[in-house]
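Board work, copied verbatim: EFR3A protein
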Amino acid sequence: FVKFANIEEDTPSYHRRYDFFVSRFSAMCHSCDHDPEIQNEIRIAGIRGIQGVVRKTVNDELRATIWEPQHMDKIVPSLLFNMHKIEDIDSRIGPPSSPTGGEKEENPALLAENCFRELLGRATYGNMNNAVRPVFAHLDHHRLWDPNEFAVSCFKIIMYSIQAQYSHHVIQEILGHLDVRKRDSPRVRAGIIQVLLEAVAIAAKGSIGPTVLEVFNTLLKHLRISVDFELGDRRSSAGSATFSTSSKESDERIVQNAIIQTIGFFGSNLPDYQRSEIMMFIMGKVPVFGTSQSLDTSHLGDLGTRRIQIMLLRSLLMVTSGYKATTITNALPPPFLDPLLSPSLMEDSELRQLVLEILHNLIDRHDNRAKLRGIRIIPDVSDLKIKRDKISRQDVSFMKKHGQQLYRHIYLGCKEEDNVQKNFELLFTSLALITIELANEEVVIDLIRLAIALQDLAIINEDNLPMFNRCGVMALVAAYLNFLSQMIAVPAFCQHVSKVIETRSLEASYFLPETIFKDKCNLPKSLEKHEKNLFFLTNKIAESLGGSGYSVERLSVPYVPQVTDEDRLSRRKSIVDTVSIQVDILPGNNTEDKVDNTEEITFEALKKAIDNNGLEEQEKEKRRLVIEKFQKAPFEEIAAQCETKANLLHDRLAQILELTIRPPPSPSGTMTITAGHAHYQSVPVYEMKFPDLCVY
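↓ predict structure ↓
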């Protein structure tokens, strides 16, 4: 039959069918003769027969019946059955090998593998799926997903054998099979996901086509399912902690880690333009309070939502690893930055750590982060050999628009009671990276204001932080100002910082990172009694920087984080409670000017106070209408309405103040105003667009 199969025919024979041969040769591949030698010979003969059928029929498009499912369901499992008998699995991994003729003849596994490679290499767009689906059936039937070494090797052979443009077909089939087996044991699902990882690793080097978002969408869906299963098992076993339940939970963690690893590996191999889209896609799935997500986590509760947040942020961390954006705006666009810095992602210490690490991946474009690892007083920053470029115009614009968001996140991150050493280390690295990558003179001043505000936060302690946290913040400020002063290289500033650090090392070493983050550190009872020479002083810093040409006027203005709408709606403690609110009171000695602010409490007043949401909506609608009017209405109409209002206001003010106004002879002259018995003359008049509306 093999000799016959090798004969090249000029004209095809349409009436010839090979159903019988496929059935017989497939049966021979499964021979179980008692004599091992005879069994081996029969299996080799069956494999060579299948190879002959493939060669005889596969190239003739008019006789494509060999690709029909009833034939593939016999041929592919027969080849896999013999491939599975080999002991050395690693010999099948990689691109097609070329064993010697003697090995081909004697080893059914190698012969079956070469036949399998040849079959897949001849597969076209229309029949690729028919060749791959029997592989899943074989692996399911023989339970080869756990352990999954053979499954991984099979799909490596498939991915290296098929034409590169068909890779996405195989990935789609794996994703579809994962959906089919979503109710199976965690280890089976983890095995399928690891196979997907290997397939993606090979396909990512070429063209994956339209399946990029589908891969991520399916993986994120299974991540949610896995968390759901884990929490369901935990709830069902509440009060009866058994070994099997804890084992199943750990198995679900294996599934979750496999998904994260696959997402990260796939994302890190994508080109930058696709990776930024995937970052936005994953961030859109993270449950953030006050926004809508496509992943439904409402039934998971707070614990489940937190697990999903951690898993997705870990995935995002892997995707952003190694990402180098030309400008920071490309790396941190507002639709990505806003949810990433959301207060609802600050409720947990681990979440805050992940957010900061993601920021580091995106901000650090010169690989300086490894040099900054660990919070410490760096004696000589020049020894770190930090790489940096001149700040671009786009980066300056980004800091003007979004710098306050970054400062605010760092400030609030320092106030959290559950901070541990790693949190302070990551906060220090964040400040240092902003200094290296994004700091011009204006940003430097803002960073110093932020550092002084953190120092005041620890000293005043309005939030009743534990003493470890207060000392940790003081150590963070010391480490950062030491770094900043050497980076901008202002001698007087460096001298002040060095003097404070030297004084602390002698009198209050718990204000330095090398001491406070040791296992056993004696903490002070209070910080109020410490001398000023232990603190960084704003006036000293202003003097030192002012002499070097810095604009230090803003240093006298204390840093206060911005209050956002999300803070008011967030489940966390509102920032409004912690920010000092300054109220300007107009001085007045005349008792007649004082107004009684007491108001009678009625049902209507209470209803009005409670219904704040309705009022906010009304205000928003009013603002929208005003904006729309000024955008669309004719200018003449707007001018006429403003002039009418100005005249009404003018007349009303004159009535209230009993003013008598004599117009000046010229617009730039003076006028006389009489208010009661007082006379004011020679008051300058400033001409405006509308003559009747003047500023006195």
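The CA atoms of residues 417 and 555 lie 28 Å apart.
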